[in-house]
Design goal:
The chain contains 9 helices and 7 strands. It is globular, with a radius of gyration of 17 Å. The chain has one domain: Rossmann fold, CATH 3.40.50.10320. Helix 3 packs antiparallel against helix 7. The protein is α/β, with parallel strands linked by helices. Strands 3-2-1-4-5 form a 5-stranded parallel beta sheet, sandwiched between helices. A two-stranded antiparallel sheet has the order 6-7.
């Protein structure tokens, strides 16, 4: 982050110039995240709003997030993965969504299994009705797992004929309005219902493994200022 990241009020002012994504045209959507919490922090209000207006929403988590606390003994990593899967289920319930499809691919190494991930997403999307959308982490987000998921989803959407949306997560912390690294010409913002927005706020607090202090001076995986920014900026997708 540069100097703590772009302030929220600067983002919100810039977002007002973006066209609004018409969610009413989405009959069904598959939302793909690299780790448990990506879907909530980057697209949660949109997903909850879509479910609230009758669209079928299904979340796919590429990994179980076992690398979020750094290197761990196998038993501890397996415990963390169980915790993060449970947190994801609780969060999706708060969003009004069904349980996720968890692919169990290796956290931190998704680029190494990108072909496998592409094939799995292609199978999932191909089994959905014609006109299904796919929302995935943005290919330029600045996190290698997020970018691998974005590339895999883009190819899977092309193969299956699905409509692709890409949502940023880490971009909100390193970029700024007008940043040349961001495809603003493809950007649209989400205008969620009040219920969708409130559900996201509640769901984000359920990822306690990422919000609590890890001890020994490590702090939380997601510091309060990072979470606050992700909850206060309008969600944006690139089409």
């Amino acid at each position: 982050m540069r100097d703590g990241g772009t302030p929220i009020h600067v983002w919100r002012s810039a977002q007002q110039d973006l066209p609004v994504l018409d969610l009413t045209k989405c009959p069904e959507i598959v939302v793909v995240g690299a780790h448990p919490d990506d879907e909530t922090l980057g697209f949660g209000a949109a997903a909850a709003t879509l479910a609230g207006i009758g669209a079928h929403v299904r979340v796919v988590s590429a990994s179980d997030g076992g690398a979020s606390h750094g290197p761990l003994p196998p038993q501890e990593r397996a415990r963390l993965e169980r915790v993060r899967r449970a947190e994801l289920c609780c969060s999706l319930d708060a969003l009004g969504l069904p349980e996720p499809i968890s692919l169990g691919l290796p956290d931190g190494r998704l680029a190494e299994v990108e072909e496998r991930l592409t094939d799995l997403l292609t199978d999932i999307l191909s089994a959905r009705p014609s006109g299904t959308w796919c929302a995935a982490t943005w290919r330029g987000d600045g996190h290698p797992d997020h970018e691998a998921v974005g590339r895999a989803a883009a190819l899977a959407a092309e193969r299956s004929g699905s409509k692709l949306l890409e949502y940023p997560v880490w971009m909100w912390h390193w970029a700024h309005p007008g940043d040349d690294a961001v495809p603003w010409q493809r950007a649209q913002r989400v205008s969620p219902t009040p219920d969708g927005y409130a559900r996201k706020q509640a769901a984000a607090q359920l990822f306690q493994s990422q919000l609590e202090d890890r001890g020994q001076g490590a702090g939380p995986v997601l510091p309060p200022e990072v979470v606050h920014r992700l909850l206060e900026v309008d969600e944006v997708v690139f089409r």
